[in-house]
Amino acid sequence: MNFIIRWIVTAIAVAAAVWIVPGIDIIGADASWVGIALFALILSLVNMSIKPILQVLSLPVTVLTLGIFYLVVNTLLLYIAAWLANGLFGAGFYIASFGSAFVASIVISIVSALVNGLVGNDA
């Protein structure tokens, strides 16, 4: 049940990023919600599996930059999820530039934190 809530929260955050950030679009799906749900599923799986490893590996740089490098890790995970979704399913994110991905990762982080706070999920 916790994964389904995490997936829904991520889908809401991805939808907000697509709506707010220029240079981020959903591609390949007939209905945009299908592409958002599919990409949110891939992003949730990447966040559960690869994110802890990258956080440990980037810990020295994150400490030196007082946590700012954590945003770069989130951006890298966004690129990985977009690459997987586009390669495996032909549907997902189109990222125009690193700046777009960076702003989208910030938007996704903020919206996820807000929605998790509303839902009461501590993920």
TrEMBL record:
InterPro entries: Phage_holin_4_2 (IPR007165). The lineage of its organism: Bacteria, Bacillati, Actinomycetota, Coriobacteriia, Eggerthellales. It comes from Adlercreutzia caecimuris B7. The keyword Acetylation does not apply. Keywords: Membrane, Transmembrane, Transmembrane helix. It comes from the Bacteria. This is Phage holin family protein. The keyword Acetylation does not apply. The chain crosses the membrane at residues 7-27, 33-50, 62-85, 91-119. Pfam families: Phage_holin_4_2.
